[in-house]
Design goal:
It is a single chain. The chain has helices spanning 15-26, 46-55, 71-87; strands at 2-8, 31-36, 39-42, 61-67. By secondary structure, it is α+β, with helices and mostly antiparallel strands. It has a domain at 2-65: HPr-like (Histidine-containing Protein, Chain: A, 2-Layer Sandwich), CATH 3.30.1340. Helix 1 (15-26) packs antiparallel against helix 3 (71-87). Helices cover 41% and strands 25% of the residues. It starts with a strand and ends in a 9-residue tail after the last helix. It has a four-stranded antiparallel β-sheet with strand order 1-4-2-3, covered by helices on one side.
Length: 96
């Protein structure tokens, strides 16, 4: 199964938010891809997600694509995480 969700970037995410996103993405069996302006990256790779975050600007539209057995749950959970992190204040950086 494949599920795609379109999101609008309101600001760049903090490092803590990116780490949380990757940790959550890794919890799904589905392959997670982020796509913007002809570039796609593996949503389970922290270095790729960091580079992607630096590439997008405010008001850009990105696609979150999940392909696999839990694709619907993955896109719902990860899109909510991205949207909530954009409105939340930055928390201290945590690698745990």
């Amino acid at each position: 199964m494949m599920k795609t969700t379109k999101l609008t970037v309101h600001k760049q995410h903090s490092m803590n938010a990116l780490i949380s996103f990757v940790k959550q993405a890794k919890s799904f069996d589905s392959h997670i891809t982020l796509y913007h302006d002809g570039h796609s990256i593996n949503g389970k790779s922290l270095t790729s997600v960091i580079a992607f975050n630096l590439m997008v600007s405010e008001a850009d539209t990105i696609l979150l694509i999940a392909e696999g057995p839990d694709a619907e749950n993955a896109t719902e959970t990860l899109s909510e995480l991205l949207e909530s992190e954009q409105s939340a204040t930055d928390q201290p950086l945590s690698f745990m």
